[in-house]
Design a protein that fits this description.
This protein has 198 residues and is of the alpha/beta class. The protein has 6 helices and 9 strands; from the N terminus they run αβαβαββαββαβαββ. The protein has helices at residues 7-23, 40-45, 61-69, 104-117, 139-151, 160-169, and strands at residues 30-34, 53-58, 76-77, 92-96, 123-128, 130-131, 158-159, 172-180, 184-191. α4 runs parallel beside α6 (160-169). It binds S-adenosylmethionine (SAM). S-adenosylmethionine is lined by residues 6, 9, 34-37, 41, 58-60, 63, 78-81, 96-98, 101-102, 106.
Length: 198
């Protein structure tokens, strides 16, 4: 059977690698990937960090089978709108192109879970398109947002300010907002010493 394949993943995997090389520390042991999709990021990026255990997850079981088919270990079903993370300590959570697919209430559940499960010094990395001050960063992102909403009116490109406010409420600080190719961003947060309110 032909493997599912994302062209976008092939284009963005090296720029994402460059960010992760700055964010991942030699002492980090475990990374949880949320919404791994086809598994291409896990497959390409995880061998670049051989000391790190990479946990690919997705809410969609069909995608998970695909990841397993690519022999990435420990692929698990995880819907951040209703499930908890695996009962392990994660140094990083990485997610690419998921916040504009999830409904906003599910994005908020995901962020609450990050606040609940990540500990001081752990990092969360969000790759994808964002709006700033109510504006899309390009005409193509405005068109993309429109096409997302035609498929699912509750999906759409998220406002950086909304994501950031929810992250701050959960005890995170934005440490970098990298400009990425094709009008995408990579937001890097670190968990401060803080007890999040659930
Ligand atoms: C556009 S795809 C991105 C896949 C991959 N990360 C990439 O960059 O190509 C969005 C993924 O998010 C997953 N997803 C959507 N809602 C989710 C949720 N509530 N919990 C976990 N994964 C979710 C979908 O199943 C899908 O695989």
């Amino acid at each position: 059977m032909e493997k599912p394949f994302s062209e976008a993943c092939e284009r963005n995997k090296d720029p994402i690698l460059q960010v992760l090389q700055k964010v991942i520390l030699p002492t980090d042991e475990r990374l949880l990937e949320v919404g791994s999709g086809t598994g291409q990021h896990a497959e390409y990026l995880s061998p670049k960090f051989p000391r790190l255990e990479w946990y690919p997850t997705d809410k969609n079981l069909i995608h998970l089978k695909d990841i397993s088919g690519r022999m990435i270990q420990k692929a698990q079903r995880l819907d951040v709108a209703k499930d908890d993370f695996p009962k392990l300590r994660f140094d990083l959570v990485f997610t690419a192109n998921t916040l504009h697919i999830m409904h906003w209430k599910d994005c908020k559940s995901f962020i609450k879970l990050l606040g609940h499960r990540l500990r001081e010094g752990s990092r969360a990395v969000f790759y994808g398109p964002f709006k700033y001050n109510g504006e899309f960063t390009s005409a193509s992102n405005a068109e993309f947002d429109q096409s997302l909403k035609e498929r699912d009116p509750l999906s759409g490109i998220r406002a950086f300010e909304d994501v950031n406010a929810n992250m701050v409420k959960q005890g995170f600080e934005l440490v970098e907002d990298y400009e990425m190719p094709a009008n995408n961003r990579c937001l890097v947060y670190v968990r401060l010493k803080f007890e999040a309110k659930r």
